[in-house]
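Entry:
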Amino acid sequence: MSAEFVCLTLIAARSLRGELFDFLSEQRDLVSGFTASDAAGHGPDIRLQTSAERVKGHADELMVRTILQAQEAARLIGRLKTAFAGSRIVYWILPVSDFGVIDVSNR
């Protein structure tokens, strides 16, 4: 039976960047790597924390994505809920139909 891969996306306040990166890097049994980018949060439930965010009209956020097996994603979400309780990190999980690395040696 092949592994069912998923993409876990996390949206967090940019102020959590260092703490979240450290946490994910420590989860070596579940996370082999991740990709992060800056994001702008919009919507009625978004908290604008700083005067700069209020002027811009969006929250400065961080988007983190990682590909992992479905059961590992569930375990990671459980750990995140414990480690980041009250942080308002938003997450979703989507199925991945294919996953791999394009390597130079595969010409």
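The radius of gyration is 16 Å.
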